[in-house]
Each structure stands twice: as C-alpha cells, then as structure tokens.
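P.,

For your records, the input lines for the assembly:
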Amino acid sequence: MPEEEIKLSERKQKILLVAVEDYIQKASPITSSAIQHKYAKSLSTATLRNELNALEAMGYLKQLHTSSGRVPTSKGYRFYVNSMMGDIPLDKKVLNEIHQMFEKRTVYLGEMVGEIASVISKATNYPTVVMLKGFEKLVIKNVKIIPLLTGQALILIETNSGIISNSMESDEKIPQQSYIDASNLLTKTFCNSTVSDMIKNMPKYIEKMDSEVKEFSTIFTTVIKSLRTLTDNLTQKGGITARGELKLLNTPEYSDPQKAKQIINVLSNPNEIKEVFSEDSAEVSFQIGSEIPVEELKDCSIARADYQVDGKSIASIGIIGPQRMDYAKIASALKFVVGEFQNLKALTHKEEKEGDKK
Amino acid sequence: MPEEEIKLSERKQKILLVAVEDYIQKASPITSSAIQHKYAKSLSTATLRNELNALEAMGYLKQLHTSSGRVPTSKGYRFYVNSMMGDIPLDKKVLNEIHQMFEKRTVYLGEMVGEIASVISKATNYPTVVMLKGFEKLVIKNVKIIPLLTGQALILIETNSGIISNSMESDEKIPQQSYIDASNLLTKTFCNSTVSDMIKNMPKYIEKMDSEVKEFSTIFTTVIKSLRTLTDNLTQKGGITARGELKLLNTPEYSDPQKAKQIINVLSNPNEIKEVFSEDSAEVSFQIGSEIPVEELKDCSIARADYQVDGKSIASIGIIGPQRMDYAKIASALKFVVGEFQNLKALTHKEEKEGDKK
DNA sequence: GTTAGCAGTCAAAGCATAAGAGTGCTAACA
DNA sequence: TGTTAGCACTCTTATGCTTTGACTGCTAAC
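Structure tokens returned:
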C-alpha cells in the first residue's frame, strides 16, 4: 500500500483522534461543537467545521446526510488504531477474569478453546470466535488408549499444547494389557511427530511392524480411523467455536435483530471465517470495516491474534464488534490471553523430561 | 386443582382447537371468519362470534382490544396441549438428526449435555436448556487416574451414564504404578457407590486404610479435592447448559431484542432455572405461560422431560419458546431424545459384566 | 339456536407540520 | 492566510390528525 497520502497537520490529527474517540464512546455523530468542548476551547466551531470538512474530503470522516454530524470511515478508524497501538492500557478487571480462567485450566484442547472464547467474550462484551488452525500440526508427546466398560476406548493424545481426546470402538477380544502396550509403542514411535504425520505414516508403519506385535495392528487401525473422523469433524465445522454471539445485541448498531442475526450467521460459517482468519497474526491486529474480505462484515471490525507454537499458528482468536468498538480494551484482553497461553506452553515444556523417564 | 369447570360442548372444543392451531401457525389473532373457513363453512360468522365470545368468558381466549381477533390464554393452550397429548406425530427429519447425534455419541457427560442441547435446539428451532440434576447420584463403575506429562493427572470416572472427567495436580515423587494401583483400589472400594457417597466416605476410608497402602492417601485426598471443585463448579453454575438462545429472535413475539435478551438472561441464571425445573418430569410435560413460576417467563412456554436412571432424574431437558410454540413437534423431539438416552443406558449396562472380569 | 346487517371500536398507515440540531457559506476581521 | 460571526439551508425526528380497514357486538328477524 503506497503512502501517497498527504500527511495530516498536527491539529487535524488531534481533531480526528478526538472525533473517533468521542464517537466510540457516544455512538452518535460528532459535531463541531462537541470537538470544541473536548479539545479546542480556543477555536470557534466555524474553524473546526472547516477542519472537519477537510478531513471529510480526505476520506477520514463522512456524513450520513447534509447537516448531520460526522462519523469515522474505515480509514478514520484505521488512523485511530494505528496511532493508538503500542500504547494499550491494560484493563485490570478484564485481565483478572482471564487470569482466573487460566488458573483452573482445562487440559482438553477442545474444552479450552470454548473457555477461551467465553472468557474473552465476557471480558470484552463482544462475540468472540476461536478457530483451530494448525490442529494437525500439534506435536505428539504421549499416547494413551484406555478401554472403557462400555465397549469403547478412549484415545488420549497429549500434545505440546493440550490433550486431544476421542473415543473409538474397542474389541472385546483384545486384552487390556495389549492396549497399554500398544499405547507405549505408539508413544515411542510417534513422540515428537505431528498429529498429521501420525495419521499419514501409520499405514506404512503397520505394514513394517514386527510380526510379534502384529496383534496391535487392529488397534492402530482403529485409532487412526477415530483420529480421522475427529480431524474431519474439525475441518468440516472448521474448528470454529463462537461464544457470546448475543452480546452483539448490546450495541446500538446491531440492536436490529435482523442485522445481528446476519452477522451471527457468518460467525458460524467455516468458509467465511476461514477467509477472515486466513492471514496469520502473531501480534494483535485489527481488520476494520471495508478491510474485511467478507461482504456481511464490511461494517464490523475484528480484533485478532494467533496463539503460536514454534512460529506456527495453532489457533486464531477473533473478537467481532461494530467499527465503533473499544479497540484499546479489546487489544488489552487479546494481548493478555495470548500471553497467558504462551505461559501454559512454557509449563508444558518444563515437564517434558519428567515424562521421558518412564 | 378441582375440576369445577363446566365442560365445553363438542362444538366449542372443536372451535377452540382450531383457533389455537391457527394461532400457532399464523401468529395473528383469530377472527370469526378464519374459523369459518377452516372449520365451519356451514355456520355463519355471527354464530362463531357468539361461540368465541362464550369461550372468552370461560377464560380460554382473550382479546387484545375490543374489535381485535382473539388470542389463546394459558388456559386455552393448556386445553389444546392436553387434548393433543398421546397423539404426538413424530417428525421424521427431526428424529433423524437427533439419531445421528447419538450415533457418534461422546463419552464425556459434560460434552454430551452440550450436544444434546445443541441438537434439540437445532431440530426444534427454539432455545434448549439442559440442567444436570442428580449429577452426584450417578453410580461409579470404574475409576482411572492418569498422570500426564504436565505435572497434572486426569481423573476419569466411568459411571452408569457417561464419563466424568477432571484434572488434578499430581505429585512428581509418586511413581506411575502407584496411580494405577490407587485407581484399582478406588474402583474396587467404590464400585456401585454414588459419586456423592464416594466424596462423603473417602475421609473415613483413608483413615481406616492399611498402613501398607498408606502412600495412596495423598492421591486419594487430591482426587477428592478435585471432585469437590468439580461438583462445586457444577452447583455454582447449576450444571446448566443452554444452546440456541438466538433462535428466540426468529419468533415474532421476541423479535424485540430487549425482550429476547431478558429471557435469555433468565436461561443462564441457575436459581431461576432450578425453580422451573424443580419438579421431576418422567414424561414429556409442558409448563404454559402463567404456570411457569418465574415472572420473566410468564408469557413463554416450556416443554420438559427428564432423563432418568433407576427412577432418579439425572438431567432435565427444557425447550423454551413463546406460548404459541409448536407443541406437537417439540414433544416429538423431546420424547425421542429421552428414548435414545434410555438406549444408551441399556448399552452401558449390557457391557457391565465384561468390565468386571479384570 | 342461527343469522343478516349495521353501528361501533381500535390499530395501523399516511400525511402535514413544527421543532431542533448541525452544517455550509459568505463576508469581515486580524 | 487563517479565523470567526452570523444566517440560510438541510434533513431528521416528533407530534398530531385523518383515513382506512378489519373485526366485533348487538339487535331484530327467522
């Protein structure tokens, strides 16, 4: 994107920032006299009108109709966000809530994703979507197959960030000990492989297996089948978890249920969300209004950050709100969550050697 | 409730049923001429007006204002529902969807509850609430403690209807084998006890333990601590899982987001929901309008059924909609879900002896 | 008991008017 | 050249009034 823009005078910048801030708070168009009160007691409203007019001509503001106040454009919000970044005040109450969630952390990856979405949504008062991105890139650390009384068995795969769990049908004729031995064998073979590698290489592996452990092949085949359905399920519904969708109704711009429903529908549509979340986002980033590649969301904004392990995005977290959303508060929440996530990961790695001893 | 009511003439009954049915479909007040079209081509509208007038006097119908059509009262809906019960047409499409959910059933109780709520809500198009009621009355069949690499351990308790799982802190100094032995001991001791019994009797049990297995007491204490937090958590948020809250916006009576939000708030309030779900409901039952003991829901209806094991309600399922909801379809869905649940239970019991052999 | 017919009622829609909030523009001033 | 006062202009919103049409209630006759 070329920087051909004539840069704004100091005063215009200040006026624009005040205007956007005011609109974010009040949700009603900014008037020249409001700016006068907030920022420039020494200037007359007429002067400010001239400035506002200029800002409008440059595309930072727009009017809904002649004789109405101004409203920021996507470009206006973008300016505001850019000049705000790096200066994000952390909201203590929000941080506390999030921290508490991580304290009583769940070990199951699936559950964790839901809790993260819930807690962010609660803290920010906006709908939050979490998309598992590189699920199959997770690194296997330990595999356990646990036969149940119901004729099923539980597969527990510890990875470098949380446990993946699924159930499979178990065969009554196979003794319990075989499941334990099979688990150990799987762990030894695929420790430090990714989940997708395990799924891919398993058939080859089964073929080459020593004849003495051939009896495990049934188990392994079932494990892979179960993992395949799990990943299929995830890719089908896109690994998307949305929470707090209703909070959208709190904001005046979506108090019309029709509008709100339209957006909420998009939130559960894997294809659209995938498009929005396609680019990785190591830092907190914003997609503002027209920058969002989905038609229905063109008057929303999305705050995003990825949870990354070894530079790879495992999950994308996104907060959806009106363009007029409280960027500072939201950035603060997101930043903190991703940070806590990183802590968790450190914890997992710390204990890694411990596990190897067995 | 005394049956002091003068009973309705055949014709009045028929008119009332037609009226309620029509209102459920169209959501607009019933007029005398609508009834004439649907039911009584041979009668004049004037006659029907007389009848409607009588039904209003008896409290089955009411007018929003003079010169408007009639709308059923709670009493009117109640009459409709009572005369409909026992004659519930099963909606094939709905049943199919529910059945598919049960096919790929989850083994975790917590997850299962969420899925049930989702699938019913999707099938009926109304918000659905599931409340775990007698969670601690579940009968323990098998206990497994599984140490993880992260310095935590997973507690898996198989019960007579699903797995309860929670994590606990594990002690690095305790060898893996001890966890396995401790699990077996727990299973042997508490098999066929309820969860609450286990929590209650554990301290006594630890005291009386042979000195040779005294080393397990640390493990057992941690297990109980973890189970306590789990049950505390559940009772705190009341074991309530709501899904599809948004569907409320689909119905014209709650297209006002304020109204909808008010109701949705109640759905996540454990105290209010507990009150609504207080009475056990072995069969599908309805609470209609004024019959609901919560002020905010007095113009809703709730369809309910319990999932019971050995005559005890384990979970209550409730579907919330406007009084004008499609009782037949909803009853069909509920009935079917509870039935499939019962099948699951049968499956679990079938395999029971299998598990004992180890 | 049933019915035709007519008067009466009320909600909803349409229209005109008035009020009010802001801007744009011009002309004058520093 | 930047700033300002002042006034005309625009457009939204609120309000009241009127009309329309859908129903019912009631009466009198069958």
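Two observations worth noting. The interface with chain A takes residues 104, 106-108, 111, 141-142, 144, 146, 148-152, 154, 156, 158, 163, 165, 167, 172, 176, 229, 245-246, 249, 255-257, 260-261, 264, 347-348, 351-352, 354-355, 358 of chain B (CB under 8 Å). Chain B has three domains: 3-84, 92-135+237-357, 136-236.

Regards
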